[in-house]
Design a protein that fits this description.
There is one protein chain. Helix content is 1%, strand content 42%. The strands form three sheets. Strands 1, 2, 3, 4, 5, 6, 7, 8, 9 and 10 form a ten-stranded mixed beta sheet that branches. The protein has 483 residues and is mainly β. The radius of gyration is 23 Å and the shape is globular. The chain is built from one helix and 27 strands. The N terminus is likely disordered.
């Protein structure tokens, strides 16, 4: 990012930002603690300084691998006088791209124990989290880098447009953001302390992490760890749009449901149970949730599913873009019906926007093979397939499995301003199978809004009947949540 003017602090004032509201309050956890540690990444030792001059106002695997700090000076001497704190495992948070066109190459990794965030290349990441910053809020973390880039920073925001006056640059060859709070020496791990409340206060719903290097082959890296926010109020930023556990044993309100050609859909056992006869290509169950009024370009979907007897192919989860003048863009997390491995989930299909009708022309395979099939963003998209294998028909067994899908349309409304910033994510049983960023997945003339999503869907020709069940279906924005 080529910005040369650093942000200079001025007098503090309270700022206000919209705080997302959860439709299901029982799914929203509010924490108020005098010292909260957000464990985000690797690092150790050194200290932060008070702001110079006047105070101012200003997963997983990667892919993005989605899955007690002490005060000290710039020397490595530590004391153990920090307040008691509560820890938050980063593996429970979900990282997505921050800044249009900024997050372009490299890796983002979270340690298995949820205590380390390591960024390399040119990565701009955010985690959705409601944070109330007070005049007494203090940010602490450990930082280490062995390759300097242009901007290494941490901060807060209320939208996806980078805010220099809410970001603290601690290392890097460019001057951007608040530069006077702390400067990393470029040696070993240092402990950083920043009195955030002396620079700005207010309501935020994103915490951001920046490792910027706009080169063809960026080599810079950042390691953040043991992030502590003291005297701050935190709560989930996730907004739940629909949650169905089927405990009332009937079709839920707000969904369209039905079946044809002998297929059956029932809820009498406390889950959504689909039964398909021997498929003819016309067997169809629809269980759809319309979202167009939300005006969403991205969505998070999670549910439990099982195929307790024979395995077979069907749409499984399909996300439909709004149809405008015959043009549309969809994505399908579908189960195989071709006979290669009926019932397996071996790819995610979509259209790359080469034409105005975008359905299943392009795919990302869970095995990581045939990467060119991603289409227009081949060679530039950041695609990770950590398992390097399909979820096979034998993986189903008879038990329930947990699926999490995140999908985002790429932006732009003309050939000149379209940006390859679409995202496609798939997690099964806490294992990331696909994490793709920087993807073209719509034509610039298509609507960027999601119309509806459907579970079950069409089946295809086969030789035996099968069942598929869903439970604990959650549709949300700004992150995953727990039922």
């Amino acid at each position: 990012m080529n910005l040369s003017t650093p942000y200079r602090p001025k007098a503090p004032e309270v700022t206000e930002a919209l705080k997302p509201y959860s439709l299901l309050s029982h799914l929203k956890t509010t924490l108020f603690v005098s010292s909260l540690v957000l464990l985000t990444a690797c690092g150790g030792g050194g200290s932060g300084s008070s702001p110079s001059g006047e105070a101012s106002d200003t997963n997983q695997n990667d892919s993005t691998s989605q899955g007690n700090s002490t005060d000290q000076g710039n020397s490595t001497n530590q004391d153990n006088t920090s307040d008691a704190s509560t820890t938050l495992d980063l593996n429970t948070l979900f990282f997505t791209s921050y800044g249009e066109g900024e997050d372009t190459s490299g890796n983002v990794e979270i340690s298995a124990d949820g205590t380390q965030l390591v960024m390399s290349g040119n990565r701009w990441q955010k985690v959705n989290q409601n944070i109330t910053i007070t005049p007494d809020t203090v940010l602490e973390f450990d930082f280490q880098s062995d390759a300097e880039g242009e901007i290494h920073a941490i901060g807060f925001d209320t939208d996806n447009s980078p805010s220099a006056d809410r970001s603290f640059q601690i290392f890097g060859s460019e001057n951007w953001g608040i530069t006077g709070a702390y400067q990393y020496s470029g040696l070993q791990t240092e402990h950083v302390t920043i009195p955030v409340g002396e620079y700005f206060t207010g309501e935020f719903n994103r915490m951001v992490f920046i490792n910027d290097e706009d080169n063809a082959s960026p080599q810079s890296n950042s390691r953040f760890s043991n992030i502590a926010l003291r005297n701050a109020e935190l709560s989930s930023a996730t907004t739940v749009l629909a949650y169905e556990n089927f405990n009332d044993l009937q079709a839920p309100d707000g969904w369209t449901t039905g079946a044809q050609q002998g297929a059956q859909l029932s809820f009498e056992n406390g889950y959504a149970a689909g039964q398909y006869p021997i498929p003819t290509g016309e067997s169809y169950i629809w269980f759809n949730k319309y979202l167009i009024e939300e005006q969403l370009s991205e969505v998070f979907v999670q549910f439990k599913a099982r195929m307790p007897n024979a395995t077979h192919g069907l749409k499984f989860l399909k996300i439909f873009g709004e149809n405008v003048n015959g043009g549309y863009a969809d994505v399908t997390y579908g189960l195989d019906y071709t006979g290669i491995d009926n019932g397996s989930l071996y790819s995610v299909s979509f259209g790359d926007g080469s034409t105005v009708t975008n359905d299943t022309q392009n795919i990302i395979t869970l095995s990581g093979t045939s990467p060119e099939l991603i289409g227009r963003s081949y060679g530039s998209a950041m695609v990770k397939t950590p398992q390097n294998q399909a979820f096979s028909s034998t993986d189903w067994g008879t038990e329930w499995h947990i699926f999490k899908m995140h999908f985002k349309f790429n932006s732009g409304s003309t050939a000149e301003n379209e940006v390859a910033n679409g995202e496609i994510y798939l997690e099964i049983d806490n294992k990331v199978y696909v994490d793709a960023k920087g993807v073209f997945n719509r034509h610039y003339s298509n609507s960027s809004y999601i119309d509806h999503l459907g579970l079950f869907g069409w089946s295809q020709g086969g030789s035996e009947s099968f069942n598929i069940d869903y439970d604990d279906v959650i549709i949300s924005k700004d992150g995953f949540t727990n039922p």
